[in-house]
Amino acid sequence: SLLDILKTFTVNEPCCDVAGHSPLHFAVARQTEEMLQILTVLLKSSLFDPNLQDRVKGQTPLHIAAINGNHKSIEILGEFSSGTPRKFDGMYPVHVAAKAKKLQCLIALKNAKADLNISASNDQKPIQLCAQEGCYDCTRFLIRNGCDGTSTSERASGLARGYLEDIVGEELLNFVSGDAQYSQEIVREAKRRLLDDLGDFIDP
């Protein structure tokens, strides 16, 4: 059987091709019943890492499934994957699904407990990608699931401005902010207060 053949491989020698594609990468490329059955067998064998990145592009099986709109593959992968998936081109699978306008993949990722509001390497949120691509259904889905389009840096900047307003007053801040002519004491105090609370806005 296929499972008996798979057992001849080890975790350290996962039968990858020269591009670093494991059988999982190939299994998620097409969403046929046969491929879904093969994907399940592969994952049950525990011989293949669901988060394995290929050597050429750095794609994981989840990324490939999202690109191709294979939401059923994502559902199966979600049963066996754990932890935060790796990035491909600075994006998590949820960003790939959002950019590709794959609503069913976003739903499958949500059911797999993926963070729908996570920031990519460029600080973009999935909902921002949906809006850029003009995908109304995906944008509405993310909004209904509590996502926002405020990036980490924007929230941090807003927090910093709030501290400055507390110190010098909103009217004065608006007057000087155009030239950024704050005194060094004001800036140092704002930074001190900001760093005390900024941990919530910094990705680990």
Key attributes of the depicted protein:
204 residues; mainly alpha; Serine Threonine Protein Phosphatase 5, Tetratricopeptide repeat; 2 domains; 12 helices; 0% strand; disordered C terminus
Please characterize this protein's 3D structure.
The protein has 204 residues and is mainly alpha-helical. It has 2 domains: 143 residues, Serine Threonine Protein Phosphatase 5, Tetratricopeptide repeat (Alpha Horseshoe); 50 residues, no CATH class. The chain has 12 helices and no strands. α3 runs parallel beside α5 and α10 crosses α12. The relative contact order is 0.08. The C terminus is likely disordered.
Can you tell me the residue ranges where pLDDT is under 50 for at least 5 consecutive residues?
Answer: 8-13, 171-182, 200-204
If you consult CATH, what is the topology of the largest domain? Answer: Serine Threonine Protein Phosphatase 5, Tetratricopeptide repeat
In CATH, the architecture of the largest domain is Alpha Horseshoe
Binned, the helix content reads 40-55%
Shape: globular
Summed up, the domain count is 2
- Give the CATH class of the largest domain: Mainly Alpha
Going by CATH, what is the homologous superfamily of the largest domain? Ankyrin repeat-containing domain
Structural class given helices, strands, pairing? mainly alpha
Report the oligomer.
single chain
- N→C terminal distance: 43 Å
- Total of helices: 12
The major pleated sheet works out as: none
Question: What fraction of the residues are assigned to beta strands by DSSP?
Answer: under 5%
**DSSP E strands, number:** 0
